[in-house]
Design goal:
The complex is a heterotrimer. Chain A is an alpha/beta fold. Helices cover about 50% and strands about 15% of the residues of chain A. Chain A starts with 7 loop residues before the first strand and ends with a helix. By secondary structure, chain C is of the alpha/beta class. Chain C has helices spanning about 15-35, 45, 55-60, 70-80, 90-95, 110-130, and strands spanning about 5-10, 40, 60-65, 85-90.
Chain lengths: ~140, ~150, ~130
Amino acid sequence: MSEKKNKVAVAVCTGMDQALATVARYAGYHVLEKLRPDTTVLLCTPALLGGVQEDIDFVKNNPALIIDGCEERCCEKIVKNSNGKIQGIINVKDVLKGHSDLQPESRVKLGPKGMKLAEIVGEIAAKRVDEILEAGKA
Amino acid sequence: MESLEFKLDKWTFKVPKNLLYNENDCWAKIDGKLATVGITDFLQNLMSDIVFVELPKIGDKIEQFDEAGSLESIKATLDLISPVSGVIEEVNNELSNTPDLANTDPYGKGWFLKVQLTDFESDKENLIGADDYLEVMKKKAEKEQQRLKKG
Amino acid sequence: MSEKKVAIVACTGMGKALGTVARQVAYKVVEELRPEKTVLICIPSMAANVGEYKDQVKNYPSIILDGCVERCATKVISENNGTIRGRVFLPQLVKKYGLKPGPRTDIGPEGEQLVAKIAEEVADQVDSLLQ
């Protein structure tokens, strides 16, 4: 990827099974909508699987940051299979270890603690976005 | 169908070269005295999923800039502003059953109306080609992006 | 194929509010309305070969909840040899019920009402499939 990129593709696990997947989802929205609206594009992981060309093309041509929900790393695997150029990976489960008081209520409704965890994940992701773009300038 | 393209983030907006456009994001394909009318790729993207289309009746007379139907999405309801004047010869009834044709194939199966032209010599003064519409569309797309960022 | 349960497959897309609505509908059906009769499919896990989802999709009839015209959930289940016995296209139900959800991060009261109505429809479909 020799051409300078000014946006990072943020891919989120969008899993249904666990509350941490819901945390990942809201972390993705937090990065895109609040923290780094000018330097991120939110990918739709199901759209990668469903063959939506705009998502597939974007992930191939831009650096990708993964926000996975658990140790299964499904989003990472999906983006790799889509020939995405993964430049950063954040795992919500790892972030929770450092903030064990912020257990989400449920996968349906995160509650205040879960939303706070999502914001923290989002902030970590935002810094990673900056690092990825800075590294790309070198 | 050869098109101009504008990329914004992950989206690519197409503007076919063989069509004429108005600044309300409608296109017209002119075939002699008949015009086929629809909405642009940009507008369908802006609207998001279209769930209902209301069309005029066959035989209705319309002037350029008249409301010639409406479209409703989960985000908004919008009037279709006719790019041409004439008499409605045909409407796309497929849009009643499958309104999202306007999203998936805005320049093909998602057409809205066919109009028997009555004053195209005047109408074309107010229509723009693909190059000019591309510029109009770029400004709108960037403005919309800024609006979304402000929340 | 076993007909004892129905697989509920939500698109869980990120781009639009109806992806969030689809997700909430799936949870409501599986957790509240028909917990004994349904299984919840996680599309990303299935794609990553995690868990039993591929087997469940092959063994149980599926009801798909698609949030937009791309119909990703339908495509993914079809590609994984699932048998689709019900398809809910959420944009049509927005029109049907006259309920428009808020943004994707907070679907709001109308969005919650929409979730409740669609979930009831899906629960009825589950009952029909298992008769």
